[in-house]
Amino acid sequence: MSTYTARLTALRAQLARQRLDGFVVPLTDEHMSEYVGAYAQRLAWLTGFQGSAGSAVVLPEAAAIFTDGRYTLQVREQVSGDDWHYVAVPATSIADWLGEHAPAGGRIGYDPWLHTRAWVAEASTALAARGAELVAVDTNPVDAVWPDRPAPSDAQLAVQDDARAGLSSAAKRAAIADWLAEQQADAVVLTALDSIAWVLNVRGKDVAHTPVALAYAIVDADGTADLFVAPEKLTDAVRQHLGNAIRLHPREAFADALGVYATKRIAADPQSAVAAIFDRLDQGGATILPSRDPVTLAKATKNPTEIAGHRAASARDGAALARFLRWVEAEAPKGGLTELSCVAKLQEFREATGVLLDTSFDTISATGAHGASPHYHSTPDSNAPLELGQLYLVDSGGQYADGTTDVTRVLPIGEPTPEMRDRFTRVLKGHIALATAIFPAGTTGGQLDGFARRPLWEIGLDYAHGTGHGVGAYLSVHEGPARIAQPFYPGGGPAEPLRPGMMLSNEPGYYKAGAYGIRIENLILVEERALEGGTMLGFETLTFCPIERTLIIADLLTPAERDWLDTYHARVVAVIGAQLDADERAWLTAKCAPIA
């Protein structure tokens, strides 16, 4: 099965053996994770799609891959249109498509460990209208035909000590116990990997770029917990850190453990706990309380120690990125640089800090037309040279023990066109509008999203992704529940009020298919602002790295926008300048000079 066509053919044969007329392949794992370990990369293995969000449906005579606006171009580059129909979400959901294309009376398979109960209900309803049914499988048919499927990671856990976490695991579990008392519940099932890592003050290496470990946890009303994790992942130091209040079990014991809660009231998050978990609890006689994971909001609202740690990580990371931008500016006009050589060089600069643990995601290094795909990732096949007349976009981040970073910058290779400068300036105006927003408590990110879009809207343009996502504290680079996005944009979702301590990205952009992409991204922190009429909320910018001045049309900026830019650049020099040598500081000072 050296080709994706052969893999699709093999899967169809396996579906026939399992008496199925179709199967749904999501890009997730048993924890409803966005980023998954190699063992769970079923969608990529089957289709070749390398994005971080998508699903597929395979029927006997048709197959479809579902992606959102971030991947409109990328999916067509990576997935063969001869084998797959491209379907845009959310305009068309998987359930909608199945309701139109599933064979009448057919049996459509799904893995109950990879879908939520809400999705199962939606798909079942759509199929019932065609006389078809959704069938839970015991054996995932993709796994059955994936001959060299990697095993789950056996990497060991590490302790995230209290000095970096800011709160002990005991204190965090005590807060969960208080929440359980309020809910009149006996226990809560935790399935989100970053929730488990945060509560127990541990980190792992089971998912690329996200320091989590494959595990489940159940926290009881007395603040003790059961942790289900492979024994070989536990070092003596981790066992000592967890202590007697954490009972340890093999990960494979989790499913059976759910069957012992007869007469108990058990909370579980319907967004992150898969259908199989609810089924097991039901079968065991538990009373299920569908509730949002109590860790979600606590984890998103950073404590002072986590905020201080991020500031240190961001200053360190900003200096590494500034060195990289200086290098690209000097070397690209000479020729010879490629997207992948730039990825390698940026990695060198970050590794030179001596404390880089990982990147926070695969670096997006995109030149020219590749920049028009917001989540493009260069491969040996797509690797393009940086050439004169192009814009080069780099979106990257680092994982450090004290913080997770995410930042995007754009450089011109040679002389930019007037249109490039106009669009860049409008994106910058939107970035500044969000960075300087003042708003009352209770405001959601969706209510602020339009601030960043208005300069583009004014000339009839927009971008097809959310403006901001939450960011973890040495955890996931994409963290809920807060977003700066309307529900219909990728990254949108239920409205969540912004609260002091939440850390998010500010990343408006513009993308011209076949030509270039622009995005300016900093991380921002929600903070209280004492004003004349009362207390409001605003943002503190946390990322410090120069914004390319040659792409800015100064006359398009208002005096207030110029002041913001000049103040920001002065802070860039103050925050990262001391980490640079004399030549680098001279370059930085020139880059951060007041806008003309």
Automatic annotation (TrEMBL):
Annotated ranges, domain Peptidase M24: 310-528
Pfam families in UniProt: Creatinase_N (PF01321), Creatinase_N_2 (PF16189), Peptidase_M24 (PF00557), Peptidase_M24_C (PF16188)
Domain Creatinase N-terminal: 7-138
UniProt cross-references to CDD domains, sorted A to Z: APP
Domain Peptidase M24 C-terminal: 536-595
Record key words, sorted: Aminopeptidase, Hydrolase, Metal-binding, Protease
Taxonomic superkingdom: Bacteria
GO terms, molecular function: aminopeptidase activity
Family of this protein: Belongs to the peptidase M24B family.
Protein name according to UniProt: Aminopeptidase
Species, as recorded: Sphingomonas psychrolutea
